[in-house]
Amino acid sequence: QVQLVESGGGLVQAGGSLRLSCAASGSIFSINAMGWYRQAPGKQRELVADIDSDGRTNYADSVKGRFTISRDNAQNTGYMQMNSLKPEDTAVYFCHGAIRPWGRLGVYDYWGQGTQVTVSS
Description:
This protein is mostly beta strands. It is built from no helices and eleven strands.
């Protein structure tokens, strides 16, 4: 069983910063990619940023220059530093992992439970 657990959300004023963490645990053989998605009320879930096993990153245009995604492969943990937060960043943020479990050949999608980020103006 593989689990992803997020932490670090909260309420912050515009211009402030937050750091999200995503800890993957369980029967993990390898993590191909980790990413962060967000979903605001009434909107579809969207990709914010992701990072592959070689450290290559990809960002949504709306967060480039403000958010930084990283990962600690030894700890199976992903992070996202969010700076210069704006009210439009308010959403539930979900951690995603493309993970190969022990004993299986395929790579599967796993999701965290979500953490609320609220940015006040």
